[in-house]
Specification:
Blueprint (H helix, E strand, L loop, with lengths): L1 H9 L5 H10 L5 H14 L4 H7 L5 H23 L5 E9 L1 H9 L6 E3 L11 E9 H12 L2 E2 L11 E3 L1 E4 L6 E6 L2 E9 L10 E9 L7 E9 L2 E2 L9 H5 L9 E8 L6 H4 L4 E12 L2 E13 L7
Parallel strand pairs: 2-6
Antiparallel strand pairs: 1-3, 4-6, 5-12, 7-8, 8-9, 9-12, 10-11, 10-13, 13-14
Helix pairs in contact: 2-3, 3-5, 4-5, 6-7
């Protein structure tokens, strides 16, 4: 009998007792109790989904509405969580290989073409040793760059890679004035830009944002919205940036990255408001569309160098 009882007890999913208590708390007359229950149920994620789906059949219309909103929020969070995880991971060992051979061994398992672009000196003479364990694509890029003493670059300014489908290209280890944020198999690059010319905002700071997508992670459309530079909301100038990526499908090429310009600031922040700071932050929302699915992923890029003021 003890064996049977233990088996029955173990058949219930972990955490369901608390979920049932929170569901009952949703019926409380106190708004504080209801809000607390909603927050905790949403935080439980998938564990709460079966109970919330049953709640969709509740006779109380208000309970059904709460259940639908919570299920939508849990689904939204799950999509963001999945988007932040690398779609492919590899384990690779490289021992004293040339740059070209090391790049081939590291990135062939990702089914991605990699190319070494020498600048001014023969960097092929370097020997590279790497041990990658269960490594995502962009972590592999960073590890390769650090070990091989190269940078991701095809010589394009201000970003490492020009908008197009292209091989993963590495060049000499010079510095670019950009920073980035990695979201799963996507990397967002940011560069601060000085407004110049006869306009009233001459010398003020805006930014440009581009995205690089691993070959298996290219969405149908991509854009960046709700951008703030140094905490100030800034408009997008669609004449230069993401109007194409929003309206036309992004190109795909087997074995190549897809790089797209996603945001170009129309507005700017004044140097005076930055109070002599040497760097700033940019935050916004990456919007990815695949078929009817739309995923909105918040991001923040910090320590972006502020370029010097231009001459009048």
């Amino acid at each position: 009998m003890r064996f049977i009882l233990a088996t029955l007890a173990c058949s219930f999913p972990a955490g369901q007792d608390e979920v049932r208590d929170l569901i009952e708390k949703l019926r409380s007359d106190r708004i504080e109790d209801r809000d607390d229950a909603i927050r905790k149920l949403e935080d439980k994620g998938k564990v709460a989904v079966p109970a919330l789906e049953k709640l969709l059949q509740d006779p109380d219309a208000e309970m059904r509405q709460r259940a639908r909103r919570m299920l939508d929020e849990i689904s939204r969070r799950e999509c963001i969580r999945a988007a932040r995880e690398p779609g492919k991971r590899v384990t690779v060992e490289v021992r004293n290989a040339s740059l070209t051979e090391a790049a081939r061994k590291v990135f062939n398992p990702f089914e991605t073409c990699a190319r070494i672009r020498a600048e001014g000196s023969d960097i092929e003479i370097l020997g590279v040793s790497l041990d990658l364990q269960d490594c995502g694509f962009w972590d592999a890029v960073d590890a390769f760059c650090e070990t091989a003493q190269v940078r991701l670059s095809d010589g394009t300014f201000p970003f490492p890679l020009a908008p197009s489908c292209q091989d993963l290209t590495f060049g000499s280890p010079f510095s670019w004035p950009h920073r980035w944020e990695t979201i799963g198999d996507v990397r967002i690059f940011a560069c601060a830009v000085v407004m110049a010319g006869r306009r009233a905002n001459h010398g003020e700071i805006t930014a440009r944002l581009s995205g690089a997508f691993a070959p298996w992670a290219v969405p149908d459309h991509a854009s960046i919205q709700d951008v703030k530079i140094a905490g100030q909301p800034i408009e997008d100038d669609e004449r230069f940036a993401n109007s194409g990526a929003k309206r036309e499908k992004l190109p795909r090429e087997s074995g190549q990255l897809t790089v797209a310009s996603l945001w170009w600031g129309k507005g700017a922040v004044s140097r005076r408001s930055l109070e002599g700071a040497k760097s700033l932050s940019i935050e916004g929302t990456l919007v990815l569309t695949r078929g009817i699915e739309v995923v909105r992923i918040p991001f923040k890029i910090s320590d972006l160098p502020i370029p010097p003021a231009p001459d009048r």
